[in-house]
Amino acid sequence: MTVTKLEVQIGNDDSVVMDEAVQRHRDEIHSASQPLFDRLHRLIIDTCPDAEVVLSYGMPTYRVGRRRLNLGARKHGLSLYVSPSRDGGLSLRHPELAAGKGTIKLDIEDAARIPDDEFQDLVRAARRSSAIAKLS
User: Fold this and answer.
1) Cβ atoms 125, 80 nearer than 8 A
2) With bands split at pLDDT 50, 70 and 90, how would you rate the model's confidence at 122?
């Protein structure tokens, strides 16, 4: 099976590569949430460049080995599906965003207040395991 990669412009000077299925998914989410999706996608790929991005359960899933980080679309933002023990402390620093075990709901305004390095810490923690610790 051949996966088509597309270069996607995100902002004035930045572009990222995502496969066609993920691009289609991104294009179908609410337009107000697309910049947040682009930001998180770029941060995840920049932090973990060897992550495989696939659609799983109808949402983009970033995989390294057995570790997964799912990014689900909502009308007013996105949800990150990651265990609280592997979220880099984000749910502790922002308890108002925790929506049940393993779900962080990000409204567009809330996400704008969270610096990139906090999301990158989440990505590093989500991918961490003995088999992939060398990626840190």
Assistant:
1) no
2) very high
